[in-house]
Amino acid sequence: MNATTIDKTEAEAPIRSRHSIQERAPGALRHLATRWESLLALLLLAVFVAGGVTLPHFLDPYNLLDGTANFSEKALIALPMALLIICREIDISVAGTLALSSVAMGLAHQAGAPAETLLPVAVGAGLACGWLNGFLVTRFMLPSIVVTIGTIALYRGLASVALGDQAFTGYPQLMADWGQGTFFGVVPRSFAILLGFAALFAIVLHATAPGRRLYAIGNNPDAARFSGIAVDRYRLGLFMLTGAMAGLAAFLLTGRIGSTRPNIATGWELEIITMVILGGVSIAGGVGTIGGVLLAVLTMGAVTYGLAMANVPGIYMTIVVGVLLVATIALSRLLRGKPRSH
Fold first, then answer.
1. Cβ(169)–Cβ(258) under 8 Å?
2. Burial level of 64, CB count in 10 A (0-12/13-18/19+)?
3. What's the angle, vertex CA 71, arms to CA 301 and CA 182, rounded to 5?
4. Residues 232-265: pLDDT tens digits?
5. How far apart are the C-alpha atoms of 87 and 76, rounded to whole Å?
6. N or C of the chain: less Cβ packing under 10 Å?
7. 119: alpha, beta or left, given left = phi > 0 and alpha = psi -120 to 50?
8. Cα–Cα distance measured from residue 237 to residue 227, given in angstroms and rounded to the nearest whole number
């Protein structure tokens, strides 16, 4: 081997090494995501088999579709929450945002606002709440979990002060049509809206440049910033998107129950975060799919539906949610394996 060959070999070696590392890491992540979604699919199938065997009307199509109304609003908020967690952020205030958006609709309705303006009012209120969260996080470099723990108390407190010990009722029929209505007399409108947004979020996250940038931010925010990605702008946008989706959920939920109550959506933040984590989105950021989140939503919805058919008190669902959250975090850690010592 002459000197020219040696120089050429040495020059090419680092290039081959870099390519092998870059190709191996995404492949491992894709394999993990696929395996996690397969586990979720099997778990969902097991829930359906167990429910079909033990409960006579569990597999009735009309009952199943009717049961989707109980989780569709939560799942709408879980979609942008997944993007936030992929970017290493979180929004604990979503239930408070939903409550304040519902109160904003109630105040607008009492002031004589047309029925067609109530959805923009709710989405606008949620957008404002999300902007405040994102502004505090990006402008002052505060941890999002601390900021949103504070703002959930703020938003819920403002809603409680505006409501007092009363409730807003008498909403227009338009809200009931969307909150309680169906397409073709079978599919709840809220579930159809959820499926539409899930498809949209999946396309954006998995098939566009902004989606790839979200993964880059989650994997290494500093490197993403040095590569020219407007990290803070993306984070602020995601907080605002989460608030806007909470406003949409407020419109549908208020229309479904027909009123704005002081305790509306209490405790939803835990269930929403559980849907996201159970769906395979890593709390460390940079990993997760919309398909996994949707599978987790359907699994939790099927469990809730089965417990309701079995006349199990709703308080037990809180225990189930807590167990699922802890078990999911522990299992994902086991699947990834312990870091090797060097």
1. yes
2. middle
3. 110
4. 999 999 999 999 999 999 999 999 999 999 899 9
5. 18
6. C
7. alpha
8. 19
CA distance 217 to 235: 9
CA quadruple 214, 293, 81, 245: dihedral, nearest 10: 110
Measure the CA dihedral 206/209/281/69, to 10°.
-60
Please, what is the Cα angle at 77 between 97 and 108, to 5 degrees?
40
3-state secondary structure 46-71: HHHHHHHHHCCCCCCHHHHHHHHHHC
Chain Cα centroid distance, residue 220: 21
pLDDT at 194 over 70: yes
Neighbours of 168 (CB within 10 A): 21
Give domain limits for the chain: 35-334
Classify domain 35-334 by CATH number. Answer: 1.10.3470
DSSP for 2-48?
-HHHHHHHHHHHHHHHHHHHHHHHHHHHHHHHHHHHHHHHHHHHHHH
Amino acid occupying residue 233: R
Give the residue carrying structure tokens 């599919």. Answer: 187
CA 134/CA 98 separation, integer angstroms: 16
In which band, very low, low, confident or very high, does the pLDDT at 324 lie, cut at 50, 70 and 90?
Answer: confident
Q: What token pair was written down for 244?
A: 């806007």
Encoded tokens for 289: 């799919």
Extended strands (E) in the chain:
182-183, 187-188
Single out the residue of 147, 104, 144 nearest to residue 124, CA to CA. 104
Q: What is the pLDDT of residues 82-126, one digit of tens each?
A: 999 999 999 999 999 999 999 999 999 999 999 999 999 999 999
Interior angle at CA 99, CA 101 and CA 318, nearest 5: 145
CB contact set of 308 (below 8 Å; sequence gap of 6+):
67, 70, 314
Q: What is the pTM of this model?
A: 0.87
Query: Could you tell me how many helices (H) and strands (E) the chain has, helices first?
Result: 14, 2
Contact (CB, 8 A) for 167 and 261: yes
